[in-house]
Amino acid sequence: MELRMLGRVDYATTVQAMQDYTATRTAESDDLLWVCEHPALYTQGLAGKSDHLLNPGDIPVVATNRGGQVTFHGPGQVVAYPLVDLHRAGYYVKEYVYRVEEAVIRTLDHFGVTGHRVAGAPGIYVRMDDPHSHALLPQRPQKREGTAPPEPDFEGLGKIAALGIKVSRHCTYHGVALNVDMDLEPFLRINPCGYAGLQTVDLSTIGVQTTWEEAAQVLGQQLSIRLAP
Q1: Is the pLDDT at 146 greater than 70, yes or no?
Q2: What mean pLDDT, rounded, does the chain reach?
């Protein structure tokens, strides 16, 4: 996988470049990992509902073709876009999502923070009262009977990483966003990822002082490892 650090780039231009690469790639094309940040904007996924945009104000709202609802991108957030041929890699979408989330969990662990999955709600969460605790969440994904996902329970949690992907011709684009040191106020103007009242946090909020560059390098390395065939 070829890792490219893009720095701060325009969102729409980057999405168009991902689409173009995915549409024209062949079985021999390299898998790519683009790591970047975007100027402030809201993105609304394919399932997005307008009533989750509470008060966007002067922040642009961009419709996009990833899965999921509305989220915010802005400076101080590491955004990673893996462009992976799943057929060649040898795993399916469900495992791909698990591997991306695992890369975020390992990245947080690098900074002494324990990341958690919540059943029925993609992304990674941290305990607000003790971000370093390894204690398992009662609302973690577990084996269950039936196919209906449980209603997510966010009590005591803050969301630190959001996931939104697209798969076309067995190839992935869009990706994951990890909050490092942001202005979090814009998250208060939306229902993040479609959940009213869901608290959003970043590393700085929970006491981790690092740079965007360090967090980007660690996440990039972890994704390169976890997404290997």
Answers
A1: no
A2: 93
Contact assessment for residue 223 and residue 82, using Cβ atoms and an 8 Å cutoff: yes
Task: Identify the CATH assignment for 2-226 out of 3.30.70.100, 3.40.50.300, 3.30.930.10, 3.90.1720.10.
Answer: 3.30.930.10
Residue 216 gets the label, from left (phi > 0), alpha (psi -120 to 50) or beta, of alpha
Instruction: Give the residue numbers marked as catalytic.
Output: 193
Size of the chain in residues: 229
* SS (HEC) of 142-204: CCCCCCCCCCCCCCCEEEEEEEEEEEECCEEEEEEEEECCCCCHHHHHECHHHCCCCCECCCC
Report the C-alpha gap between 166 and 171 in whole angstroms: 8
Nearest to 63 by CA among 48, 74, 81: 48
Chain-centroid distance of CA 186 in Å reads: 17
CA-to-CA distance for 137 and 47, rounded, in angstroms? 28
Contact 135, 146 (CB under 8 A): no
Query: In this predicted model, what pLDDT tens digit does every residue of 68-110 receive, in sequence order?
Result: 889 999 999 999 999 999 999 999 999 999 999 999 999 999 9
| Nearest CA among 29, 31, 30, 37 for reference residue 5 | 37
Residues 9-31 have a mean pLDDT of: 96
Q: Which helix (H) or strand (E) element contains residue 14?
A: helix 11-24
Distance CA 211, CA 6 (A): 16
Q: Would you say 79 and 175 are in contact if contact means Cβ atoms under 8 Å apart?
A: yes
The residue among 95, 228, 85 whose CA lies nearest residue 169 is: 85
